[in-house]
Design brief:
The protein has 509 residues and is of the alpha/beta class. The protein is built from 14 helices and 20 strands. It folds into three domains: 184 residues, Rossmann fold; 189 residues, 3-Layer(aba) Sandwich (Rossmann fold), CATH 3.40.50.620; 102 residues, GMP Synthetase, Chain A, domain 3, CATH 3.30.300. Helix content is 32%, strand content 23%. A nine-stranded mixed β-sheet has the order 2-1-3-4-11-10-9-6-7, sandwiched between helices. Strands 14-13-12-15-16 form a five-stranded parallel β-sheet, with helices on both faces. The structure holds xanthosine-5'-monophosphate.
């Protein structure tokens, strides 16, 4: 494995992604990690990440300098390189101004990191300080016009430094450089596969849980579904899933879930039909944040009441993912600091004093999908678009009533049918319908109508932080609109949302 010491760069998750894409396991750890803990991990190599600080700042992050006596290959990136050079007696020059953007890298030495990389290649710079002089034992391996010391090596110690960022796409040969570090230099093997992960995770769960009972809140999303499958394979009948049907799901979702998990996979599931409770609590509420709060609270009440019925449960399982953990650990603090509560579960049932099991907490979303595949989860479940915890409640603008809910369910089902048939479902991050609190005049046959308007929202995105409205073909949009207006009673107008995020958001509420 590879350890990545987190000095706070915004690109750290990308370093981890590149390493894992090369099928090598890695963990991001804070600089406060002790030498003993590093030894316990027994890494093949260590990457010192970039970071926003200058090593001259009083509170800049530092890690124990004994790391340089461990006889483990080390790659310092940007701030990580400066930290290494400073610690080993070189000079770091304070910046007059930041260098940001593309630069042409001139490679002088093609051994090690730059094997099979062209002598001239682009690299991405984002730094203030730079290296002024290198300590004994080091030599310069590449430079750019503004940065004469852009890459360095200490062959004896197997230490490497890059002033630029090999992990970003803007450094086209960056992945090759990282792989040169992983394989010829560190001697890693490509053994990080989801089959291996599943095998290890199953025995870890068995060790942690023993013969005790585990409760899991199943939402139907890919994370909780994969967590359920994995834990079920580890402990079988000692896992009980609770599925709270809040009545705000897409058409037929609850039935599909029953079939997939209950009937096909024989997982214990308690279905709680709480649609009435949610609808009652939401009655006459129009404010989006109030809706969310009410739904969160009713969910916790219902979940807790159901969980209390499961005697002797000692563990609560959650489908927390690695980005949640990385984001919630402070850049320089310990990984054990606040961990974000799961969106759809909202934390531990307090009265029950359950211990947490989070078998996916070191995985990225696409790895969870691969794991689902390795565990034979339905393709349909694996590729489900994200669906918000508050469900259709935040897609009915204004008041939520049974009637409006059923109109939206029908519209949404028709929309998804067409999106799937046209082969767009997996290409889109999300696609859904929104019921507006407005009516418009229409004409059907010879009759004047005065009915609802729905908006169609379809976006592409990588992580929901930014999103672009999808350029769906006009023919497809036309078909969707025709079918909705003709088939769903109570709708006489369809509009398409052409706003991107930012400044809009994906959901309307
Ligand atoms: P926005 O609308 O903020 O959405 O651009 C970003 C992503 O988050 C989802 N979303 C939610 N998910 N509870 C959730 O579990 C919520 O209250 C919630 N609000 C938005 C949204 O569907 C999109 O994927």
């Amino acid at each position: 494995m590879i350890l990545i010491i987190d000095f706070g760069s915004q690109f750290n998750q990308l370093i981890a992604r590149r390493v894992r894409e090369s099928r090598v396991y890695c963990r991001i750890v804070p600089p406060s990690i002790t030498i003993q803990d590093i030894r316990k991990y027994n890494p093949e190599g260590i990457i010192l990440s970039g970071g926003p600080s200058s090593i001259y700042e009083k509170n800049s992050p530092k890690t124990d300098e004994k790391i340089f006596d461990l006889n483990i290959p080390i790659l310092g990136i940007c701030y990580g390189m400066q930290f290494m050079i400073h610690a080993m007696g070189g000079d770091v020059k304070r910046a007059d101004k930041r260098e940001y953007g593309f630069a042409e890298l001139k490679i002088q030495n093609h051994d090690d990191l730059f094997q099979a990389v062209d002598p001239r290649t682009s690299c991405w710079m984002s730094h203030g300080d730079s290296i002024k002089s290198i300590p004994r034992g080091f030599s310069i391996t590449a430079s750019t016009e503004n940065t004469p010391i852009a890459a360095i090596v200490n062959k004896n110690k197997r230490f490497f430094g890059l002033q630029f960022h090999p992990e970003v796409h803007h450094t086209p040969k960056g992945k090759k450089m990282l792989q040169n570090f992983l394989f010829p230099i560190c001697g890693c093997r490509r053994n990080w596969t989801m089959k291996n992960f599943a095998r290890n995770a199953i025995s870890e769960i068995q060790e942690t849980v023993g013969d005790k009972k585990v409760i899991l809140g199943l939402s139907g999303g890919v994370d909780s579904s994969v967590a359920a499958l994995l834990i079920h394979q580890a402990i079988g009948g000692n896992l009980t899933c609770i599925f709270v049907d809040n009545g705000l799901l897409r058409k037929n979702e609850a039935e599909k879930l029953k079939k997939t998990f209950g009937r096909n996979m024989k997982i214990n599931i308690r279905f709680v039909n709480a649609g009435g409770k949610f609808l009652k609590a939401l009655s006459k509420v129009t404010d989006p944040e109030k809706k969310r709060k009410i739904i969160g609270k009713v969910f916790m009440d219902v979940f807790e009441a159901e969980a209390q019925k499961i005697k002797d449960a000692e563990f609560l399982a959650q489908g927390t993912l690695y980005p949640d953990i990385i984001e919630s650990q402070s850049a320089f603090g310990g990984p054990t600091s606040v961990i974000k509560s799961h969106h759809n579960v909202g934390g531990l049932p307090k009265k029950m004093k359950l211990k947490l099991v989070e078998p996916l907490k070191y995985l990225f979303k696409d790895e969870v999908r691969l794991l689902g595949k390795a565990l034979n989860l339905d393709e349909e479940m694996i590729w489900r678009q994200p669906f918000p915890g508050p469900g259709l409640a935040i897609r009915i603008i204004g008041e939520i009533t049974q009637k409006r809910l059923s109109v939206l369910k029908e519209v949404d089902a028709t929309l998804l049918e067409e999106i799937r048939a046209a082969g767009y479902y997996r290409k889109l991050w999300q696609s859904f319908a929104v019921l507006l609190p407005l009516k418009s005049v229409g004409i059907m046959g010879d009759q004047r109508t005065y009915e609802n308007i729905v908006a169609i929202r379809a976006v592409t995105s990588k992580d929901a932080m930014t999103a672009d409205w999808a350029k769906l073909p006009h023919k497809l949009l036309g078909k969707i609109s025709n079918r909705i207006i003709n088939e769903v009673q109570g709708v006489n107008r369809v509009v398409y949302d052409i706003s991107s995020k930012p400044p809009s958001t994906i959901e309307w509420e």
